[in-house]
What does this fold into?
Amino acid sequence: MLDRLKTTAFISPQPAAKHPAAEQARERMRTRAGRDAAFDRQAHAEGSIAELKRHGADRARCRGTRLLQLQLLAAATAINLKRLITLDPAASHGLTGDPDARNRTVITLADLLTATLREIDEILNDESSTGS
It folds into this structure.
């Protein structure tokens, strides 16, 4: 998905991860852009967590690790989609300079949110089935 969006992820891998993708991620994190991304993440985490709480992530709405992961993914995706749609291009410091990239990102996030909600629905329907 990131390749399709022509986006580079600056996310540190788990410390024990030794596979090639983890090593590549560590190399990206050692660049100036990677260090800036890490600092930005740390500086803005409190606000993001507070916004997630306001969007229903203050408590689990379901049981099970997978359902909780999906709940948080849906909340975070919805927030990112909302931010992207309501972002003022004039005040975005060039973040929305390419309308096609912005539109592709909106479509990708909407698809991700739809797939996440479908998976939640499937899991809940499977759990509520009596099997008879």
Q: What stands out?
A: The chain is about 65% helix and 0% strand.
